[in-house]
Amino acid sequence: MKVDTYKKTSKDFRFPPNLDDYDHAYRVFDWKTAHKELDWFDGKLNAAYNAVDRHLHTWRKNKVALYWEGEAGEQKKFTFEELALASNKIGNILKDFGVERGDRVFIFLPRIPELYFSFLGILKIGATAGTLFSAFQEQALADRLENSGAQVVITNSELKLRIDKIKSKLPELKHIITVDTQDFQKSFEKASEDLHVAHMDPEDYAFMLYTSGTTGKPKGVVHAHRAVIGQYATAKWVLDLRDDDTYWCTADPGWVTGIAYEILGSWTAGVTAVVHAGRFDPKRWYEILEKYKVTVWYTAPTAIRMLMAAGDELVKKHDLTSLRHMCSVGEPLNPEAIKWAIKVFDKPFHDTWWQTETGAISIANYPCMDIKIGSMGKPFPGVVAAIVDEQGKEVETNAEGNIALRPGWPLMMKTIWKRPQKYKSYFEHGWYISGDRGWKDADGYFWFIGRADDVIKTAGERVGPFEVESALVEHPAVVEAGVIGKPDTLRGEIIKAFVVLDAGTKPSEQLKTELMDYVKKHLAGHAYPREIEFIDKLPKTRSGKIMRRILKAKEMGLPVGDTSTLEEY
Ligand code: PRX
Predict the structure, then answer these.
(1) Model pLDDT for residues 255-306, shown as the tens digit of each residue
(2) Which residue in 426, 480, 19, 54 sits closest to 214, CA to CA?
(3) Residue 199 and residue 39: Cα distance in Å, rounded?
């Protein structure tokens, strides 16, 4: 395989990076040093306090923490002090509702300022914050709110209608707070700006996110307050954030990237952040980069490929010379996308690899390091990563295996909510097994190959095939469904469903559209199958498990492999 390398030159070092010598840092790194850079209360800490309130004792008090721009172009800005006070108010409102330490408070909002105030407010009173994409529909919401036993949901009047429909399934849900009502406005105005920030043990729960595996319903990955230590350290060394930066992370906090690098890590680093609440639109995105003079940009491969498809002329219409550093996460960053970035922005995207479970960037390309184009880079200092075989033995250089991390680094998830066995199942032979396959080259760079399981990555979103299959079989015409990720040049993968219809139903194009809409309405706007194929029978094991591997192999025209365990084929 021919590897192109982007060699850093003096042009890339006009601003010396925060991390100037990766190898040295990796050798001498000690998490205790990172601990010391945060604010502690006698061995206790609070992630939200570190993100916002600690800056109030410094010159950053009146620095803009958030430039917010809405879908229709509305603009607002908040200083660190304003963020601190607004989140204190939310903390007090929640306390008035009887919310206590450890209670789960879920946020079901688009990216409006109240989402950020709420997230911080929840953490400040020691409750556990959960985030929900505003694209979620009844089934996705019910699964998450039921399993988490959320006592409170913070939402708006439009999205509340979806919660109302499933309320009867949620006995533990006591309050729904609707932030766009007059009642809420009044209590927000009245609420005190003084709040005693809870001193949390580093191991206490801070936030949780539901993410998909290959089987079963989504699982609640729980993170402790200590996660902020790694989010801060990586924000500093991988995203290279500094005080004079204007930083734009394009992720939604319904995704771990939005929590770690739009709220906790980036604000702990004291940076001015931009949040754009609107949909993806190439022209708007370039306008935002230009208008706010964004210096550091963290985005995802599908967005980059969509920008690429929008053409070079559009880029040239904007002055993007403020950009200093660009990173990407969530799915494989193909070499063409990096080469295009070098051509049009005069700088590459730096790929970063991590997962909801790992809590922060785990493998990355650093500003100080040359980029082997197509590689995910090297482990963050303090993280031991390896490629291991099924026995946990490191494989040889360049050989394929499981991407694994040595447990014990301080950001790793704390648990899987109510599923301790599931949590334990991640760890084998002294390693955390990521579920991704990859290889490591002779220089220590890691390369991604694919998932070891059936998890689908579509436009960066992690979708469990089981969830989509369950949604499809709810439709009266569907008897069975098997769902796979089908490679797609734009979205990485698209969801493809193989559907067995009820004997009395005739397959038609119209029915395909109906099924797509059905999943959009019941599960989530982004988790619907873009392709549907009607088939007579699904390949299954003798115990009745759908063999997605076979569906995928057939789809791709590859050999189907061992079928001896199949019921019938
Ligand atoms: O398969 C890997 C892919 O995304 C998975 C994790 O998804 P999620 O928990 O949603 O978190 C994504 C953002 C932190 C991984 O198991 N993935 C993530 N980053 C990369 C990647 N695949 C290839 N290259 C990456 N840089």
Answers:
(1) 999 999 999 999 999 999 999 999 999 999 999 999 999 999 999 999 999 9
(2) 426
(3) 11
* H helical segments located in 52-137: 80-96, 113-124
The one-letter amino acid code at 121 reads: G
Determine what percent of the chain is predicted with pLDDT higher than 90.
Answer: 91
Write the CA distances from 369 to 3, 53, 350, 559, integer angstroms: 16, 34, 10, 40
Distance 354 CA to ligand 1 centre (A): 5
C-alpha to C-alpha distances, 432 to 87, 152, 403, 408, nearest whole angstrom: 35, 33, 9, 9
Nearest Cα to 135, choosing from 146, 122, 148, 144?
144
Residue 513 has pLDDT above 60, yes or no: yes
Q: What does the alpha-carbon distance between residue 129 and residue 153 come to, in Å, rounded to a whole number? A: 10
> Token match 């989140």: residue?
87
Of ligand 1's atoms, which has the minimum distance to the CA of residue 211? 9
Q: Domains of the chain (ranges plus CATH)?
A: 5-440 (3.40.50.12780), 457-556 (3.30.300.30)
Regarding pTM above 0.90, the answer is yes
Which residues does 393 contact at the CB level (< 8 Å), separation at least 6? 429
Residue owning tokens 């450890």: 102
330 within ligand 1 shell (Cβ under 6 A): yes
Q: What is the pLDDT of residues 101-146, one digit of tens each?
A: 999 999 999 999 999 999 999 999 999 999 999 999 999 999 999 9
Q: What is the mean pLDDT of residues 496-503?
A: 95
Q: Which of 331, 405, 413 to mutate to test the pocket of ligand 1 (most atoms within 8 A of CB)?
A: 331
pLDDT, tens digit, for every residue of 310-343?
999 999 999 999 999 999 999 999 999 999 999 9
Which residue's CA is minimally distant from atom 7 of ligand 1? 355
Q: Whose CA is nearest to atom 8 of ligand 1?
A: 355
Residue with tokens 């809590």: 359
Amino acid 73: pLDDT: 92
